[in-house]
Structures are given as structure tokens and as C-alpha cells.
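Course assignment 3, question 2. Fill in each field.
Student: A.L.
Task: Predict the tertiary structure for the chain below.
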Amino acid sequence: MADPTDLNLPEEREHVYKQQNDDVPASSLTYLNPKRGQTMETTRRANRISFWQLNALIVMVVLAASGLVSPLDFGFVLFSVVYIFFLSKFAFPPQSDDPSKDPPVFNAEGIMVKTGLAFGAVLGLALPIAYIFHGFLEGDQEGIKAAAPHVFLLASQAFMDGVAFSDRFSTPIRVLVPVFFNAKRISTLMDWVRNEFSKVCVGGGCDAAAERRVLLGRGLAVANLVFWSLDLFGFMLPIYLPRAFKKYYSSAKTD
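Answer field:
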């Protein structure tokens, strides 16, 4: 007897998913568009936005609306969206009906992974956002413009990470997203560092508050450049990316 999930008729497919998910109206199945082999739970995950994605999106919109994002950076984000779908279609398609169940490259519950993510979020987003907000209060337009590109791109990366880790994309796509954005952000961080060290306030007759802000900006810019450079060149490229490809192609051989 044929597997009912192999039937292609929309009415029969809706009936199968309705049986698996009695609390979901059949009319919503067309909107959610579940794929063969998926349950409604994984379909819901693919069609909803997480709390962190929502916050990242808010940061992106605020910075873009403030005129602090260059057309080049904005274009890079749009290009990355198109490119990951292109790669997913033609280079690294999902190898299962529910890629969200694929084994992760690293244990997301591990203490090192959690610590690294938390530290990166504080250093890369929370502190620079506070620095930008303080700059608005102090009228430091130069410092704001220097820090904003990094914050915008990191918020975009956080948003795209959520998209990549849905059940639509394979493991290589999930790894390539942070690699893309980290590589791009290195240049913006170098610009931020150059901008901060070009200021002549320190020892140049500025008041104490302005001098402290310059020192804070320099420390924050350098710390981010060092951290994200080590993350890209010391972890993602030599360790994370090769392991992701190994898992992907090993799974392909097994199948």
C-alpha cells in the first residue's frame, strides 16, 4: 500500500497533515505550506520569527532609518539574502525533509558555545549600541557614524542566522552566513578603529567627559576588531567551516 505522504493531491496532503495536527485548521496548511516529511511543528518554526531576530530587525531598521547605513552595506545584506537561497538551491540543498533535525556541528548547549555567543552579543551589539546612544546625547556624530556600520551588519547577521537555522537550509548554509558577515565586518571595524584613533581629543584640551568617550570608543573598536578577527580566522575558517562540510558530505555518502 502506498505511503499517503507520497500522494501529490493537495486535498489528500491536507488530510494527512490534519490527522497529524488535529489542532491546526486544514485551511491554514496551504498558507504554512508544509513539505513532505514535515510536521506542523517544524513548519511553524520555519514561518515564525524569534525574539532575537525581532530585536536584530529593530536595530537594523532604526539604523537604516537614521541614515547611518551606507548603500554598500545595505546592498550587501540584500545580496546575502539572495545568495544563500541561490546556494541552497544549486550548491548545498538540504539532504533531508527536515534539516533542523540534522546533528549540529557543535553542541549548542555546550558551555563554550554559550559563553562565546553571550560574550559576542555583549561586546559586538550591547556595548556598541550603548556607545551610539551615548553619542546621540553627547552630539558625537563622527563616533556614531563610525560604529553604526558594524552594529548594522552584526544585527543583520543575527537576523540571517535565524533564517539559516530554520528547517529550510542545510548545515553549510548555516555556517557560511556568519563567515560572510564576519568577513565583511572586518573592514568596517578597521574603519571604526582608524576613525577613533584619528581623533585628537586626548591630551588636546577636551573636557574630561569627552576624553573618556574617546578612550572608550578606542577600546571598544579595538576589542571588537580583535575578537571578531580571531573568531573568523581562528575558529570559523580553520575549524567550523571544514567540520560543517565534512558532516554535510559524510551524510550525503551515507544516504
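Instructor remarks: The chain has a mean pLDDT of 80. Residues 208-254 form the longest helix (47 residues).
Grade: pending
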